[in-house]
Task: structure prediction
Amino acid sequence: MIKNNIFSAGNKIKQFAQAGKLKMGRMLGTQSRKKQEVSELVPAVQEKEIEPGKKQVGERIRTESENRRYRAPRKKRKKSSWTLDSFPVEHVEGKSRFHDFNIPLPVMRAIRDQGFKYCTAIQGKALEDVLAGKDLIGKANTGTGKSAVFLITILSRLLRRGNDGRKKGVSALVLAPTRELVMQIAKDGEGLAKYCNLTIQPVYGGVDYQKQMDSLRTKRCDVIIATPGRLLDFLGKGVVSLGNCNILVLDEADRMLDMGFIPDVRRIVGRIPARSERQTMLFSATVPEDVKRLAMQWSVQPIMIEAEPEQIAVETVEQVVYLATLEDKYKILYNLIKQNGEDKILVFANMKSETRKLSDRLKRNGVDCVLLSGDVPQNKRAARLERFRSGKVKVLVATDVAGRGIHIEGINIVVNYTLPYEPEDYVHRIGRTGRAGAAGTAVSFACEEGAFYLPDIEEYIDKKLECIQPEESLLATPPKGQAETREKYRHKGGKNRNYRTNKTGSGPGKKNETRRR
Result:
């Protein structure tokens, strides 16, 4: 083995020496020397026998480029044959179509897949101006289709620039106050960007920090949708650069103001190009003086468009208020769920403890439901929302954490088990149904406590809410709740690990049960 290694090393040294002579010959211009060196380096090619029917190919020295690994030529992408003829929408007086605006075909194709045909009020008013690059202040509640306004605008403007016009890094930034709203906007954006070859990255707290950071560092990112805190953290570590971001969207600006996020937002805005070099869109359910002041600081001659939340609540949602005692409220809720078993029902309560007790009671009565409150960890919160969104679970019990910014298609009934303290929250709650012009029903209870909140709500929505007696079928007594199983008892931290629900059992469980008696 040692002998072979020495022999191999000697051959290599010889080749290097011969190559050096060849190079020297080229420098001196001696062609005869060059031919001699080439003949020493390249062995004579032995003549091969040619099989009949095959052509002889001349032998030659392989060049450096031919020695490289062969790569198949890249296949050209076939251009989509989809046209607007595949998306016919009739003209209707008083309604705007997406066809009426300068929206690229890939986005129009995604709009068709989403089942949209006609624009909502704010979409019809805003799209023409924002597609032209103008700044905007939009007074609009959730459920008006405002997310589609800025998502369609972002995708359309980035597509028009093409790959050459888009600079490296993040091109558009959307800021929202809550992680639930960020996830919802990102999901809507991915649906609209289906055919655009643009990437959308959500950034929010409560999930794997390292995973998000690695994704931002290694993957291409055209649009970021983020909560201010987590994004500011990544900016401080140099994970994200906003130097080429020329579209800024602030969603739920009034809520960000209430939650104290404005200082963080100011620091983020300071890292993107100046307002004269970017497009700024601001959306808010209410536009108080503080929000107006911020909008004027961050935008250039913005246009103002309104879509009143009161009109949405009154015109598209059937509002029912039942006169009920505290004891009758649960009976009505239980029978309402049973009578509408195929409908998605969203139940609101004011306190986390109320939602927890209500969820447990419904489960004991055989109602499959999920709970959403501030105590639920983020990973479980997202999974529960997805189960409700997909229809695997028909009932969601929630606090106002789900009142704004959660867009779930097909919610048929919203129940205010306890009326909210603020009339604005009433509008936000019932806005979960009757979205984008669809019909929906809102059920509330005028009980001993809730009746005191009705006058303020009526004044806010400018409509009288008639209180009615519930039907007899809604007052039927629910069945007796089932006892908790041993697994649930253990999960809740029960002290007796041998607890058994079967009294006829044998073994340690029965012995312990007898001892308790």
